Automatic annotation (TrEMBL), chains A, B:
Name under which the protein is recorded: Dihydrodipicolinate reductase
UniProt keywords, alphabetically: NADP, Oxidoreductase
Source species, domain of life: Bacteria
GO MF annotations in UniProt: 4-hydroxy-tetrahydrodipicolinate reductase
Domain Dihydrodipicolinate reductase N-terminal: 4-103
TM stretches of this protein: none
One GO BP annotation of this record: lysine biosynthetic process via diaminopimelate
Lineage, uppermost ranks: Bacteria, Pseudomonadati, Acidobacteriota, Vicinamibacteria, Vicinamibacterales
Source species: Luteitalea pratensis
Gene3D superfamilies attached to this UniProt entry: NAD(P)-binding Rossmann-like Domain
Residue stretches making up the 2,4-diaminopentanoate dehydrogenase C-terminal domain: 140-331
InterPro entries given in the database record: DAP_DH_C (IPR045760), DapB_N (IPR000846), NAD(P)-bd_dom_sf (IPR036291)
Length: 336, 336
């Protein structure tokens, strides 16, 4: 029996999830909801750029879509901000449906958004379903994966994660999100306004800290420009020498002595010579893990969202995180 | 409140677990059982080579040790063979105690030992506790870790894992177990007799296959000698050119077309130029992960066993595997 999925939010990430659910075994898309007037009423296949129709019309109202589609699960890809999606989560839970969401701040809201986390947890338990925030980062490369690696350690002293990405192979909105092509002044302004930043480092630091049982004194999240030392370009953008090629961002968790226990360092810029994800655990033993080429952000976020759908159906009721879930795995359409 | 642990089986792996439980926060050792007359009646600290007493006398009888120690959990490190430990597992379950075991064949018994797996599952559910087989391999590097990595994949076509170890830094029993110093003829004889082999490749292949939802036609487990191209030695052994420096062993899972979907390749020999663990996932996207230096087998097996103790206390009742458990993590003595 295919899992009946309702998609809420049809931005770039949302349609990435739609494309996988439409083409992978084990899923039946039974509805889609978005607020964009350009999408409402159109066939979901067209909106998702599938090149074929899916016989699913994009709706504007959640309740009507649930009533018509009778989904088993809702995939929520509307915003990075938990305060923006909290009401949407509550609405879905009124219908007693489990949720998988790509909302970055939902990946581990127990530090920055404790009150909302508690509220969602209570509603989900009452509805007897699980709610999970996931994605490649936060959700995997900078939290669940390093936590998993510490499972073979006798002692853990500190954890450092590096995620270095050559942004030139990513989509245009991503290149814009990291500030490629801006002057340093424009970059600083955009950072100030919150338009240029990766959301989730604080969430990942907090998830790791709680998994290790570490009490942190503070978490910092520092953004800076990566200035082009020479001219570089992508399919979409040209960057002059001295302009911004992309972003560096570091989330750090400090103990009460000012020691950095957790360091999550990202760089995403045009022309990075090597993309990779690395985890360095200092302890007994030390561990040095590297994924050559890195984990492709767009594919991976949609993939882990889709792969989490069958797991969230059997997870205990309440607000779950990748830390409290059964180990991730690819879902090939049937469970054995 | 410290977790009260009873240790059953005090061989090299068992005492490795004892040493960690004795020195790490969050545990209180309340008993130890072994059949070896040389150990019975002695203080566990002495038997484990701790250089201090633990005020725990090694017992010969499980029931008496449970009655005296009132453990929360039993750690079982008596044998690689499930048929040899099945009665011990059943005995512990009579006392309604959860079990973490390093028995390799218990890591994923649903292929080779289905009848015993079913029996243990039923007994554990009846006792309302969880039973888990774990270790570095099987249990982590060649199954749980590659499965975890596929969580970010849209499609998985095949999985290859390599575990290459320079055995010269390992303990003498390990070097003997891999046949170092034997002639090729002696090696072949020992393989024939079952004395030289790594136990667990079939279990890891089966765990991965079930996680991927793949139906395998067959699983093979092939052992060969690694012949020394030049003289080499360890602290304990000298190997002449032409003698056996160690073992190569490959577990392979084939589909009905004879295609190798899962390949788990191990080499452990004196003088390996580089130790590492690698996972290569072919699919969308491809993933190339490498742990430089590898995961040290002795420390890691004891560590993941100890780290699994708090998790098994809250796991659902029944026979669990690393595939059905919450993601692994280091346990620092308290849960947050």
């Amino acid at each position: 029996m295919a899992i009946r999925v309702l998609h809420v939010g049809l931005g770039p990430i949302g349609v990435g999830v739609v494309r996988q659910c439409a083409s992978r075994k084990g899923f039946k898309i039974v509805g889609a909801v978005d607020l964009d007037a350009d999408k409402i009423g159109k066939d979901l296949g067209e909106v998702a750029g599938l090149g074929r129709t899916l016989d699913v019309k994009v709706e504007s109202k959640l309740a009507a879509a649930i009533k018509a589609g009778r989904p088993d699960v809702v995939v929520l890809c509307t915003s990075s901000s938990l305060s923006k999606v909290a009401d949407q989560v509550a609405d879905v839970l009124k219908h007693k449906l489990p949720i998988v969401s790509t909302t970055e701040e939902l990946a581990y809201p127990w530090f920055s958004n404790k009150r909302l986390a508690k509220k969602i947890d209570v509603l989900a338990r009452k509805a007897k379903v699980a709610v999970l925030g996931t994605g490649v980062n936060p959700g995997f490369t900078m939290d669940a994966l390093p936590i998993t690696l510490t499972g073979v350690c006798e002692r853990v002293d500190s954890i450092r994660v590096e995620r270095i990405q050559d942004a030139s192979i990513r989509r245009l909105p991503f290149q814009q999100k990291i500030g490629a092509g801006l002057t340093p002044e424009e970059f600083a302004e955009k950072v100030q306004g919150g338009a240029v930043r990766h959301v989730g480092l604080t969430e990942s630091v907090a998830m790791i800290a709680d998994a290790m049982g570490w009490k942190l004194e503070s978490i910092t999240d520092v953004i800076g420009p990566r200035i082009a030392a020479q001219a570089t370009k992508s399919e979409f953008l040209a960057v002059q020498k001295g302009q911004v090629a992309g972003i560096t961002q570091t989330g750090t968790g400090y103990d009460k002595n000012g020691q950095a226990l957790i360091t999550l360092h990202m760089e995403a810029y045009l022309g990075a010579p090597e993309s990779y994800d690395a985890v360095i655990v200092k302890g007994l033993p030390d561990l040095h893990m590297k994924i050559a080429g890195g984990v492709h952000g767009d594919i991976a976020t949609a993939s882990i969202t889709v792969n989490s759908i069958p797991k969230v159906l059997t997870a205990p009721a309440g607000l779950q995180t990748m830390r409290s879930m059964v180990i991730p795995s690819w879902f090939g359409g049937k469970t054995r």
